Amino acid sequence: MALTATLTTETIVKITLDGDLDASTAQSFKEVVEKAAAANPKRLILMMEKLDYMASAGLRILMFAKQKMGAATDIYMVGTQEMVKGTIEKTGFDQAVIMLDKYDA
Description:
The chain is an alpha/beta fold. It has helices at residues 26-38, 56-69, 82-91, and strands at residues 12-21, 43-54, 74-78, 98-100.
């Protein structure tokens, strides 16, 4: 009998955001995104349950993440609070990511 052995490796990177993402914190988030991009992930999971506020500077870093990682990387935003979700939806960036209430790998 023949054997088929298939190995699939998916690189999943998870970043947990806690607090406010604004001009004063965007650079540190950008540095984390750059490290994540270096792993060439198939999925970037952004755990956003504890992200209370996001200014336009934070949104620019999210757009940077999407551009840096390319179309082959899916970006998941998990547990986004209503205020932050509204900002993302108003810009149309919700069309470029996958928004979930919960993520189960």
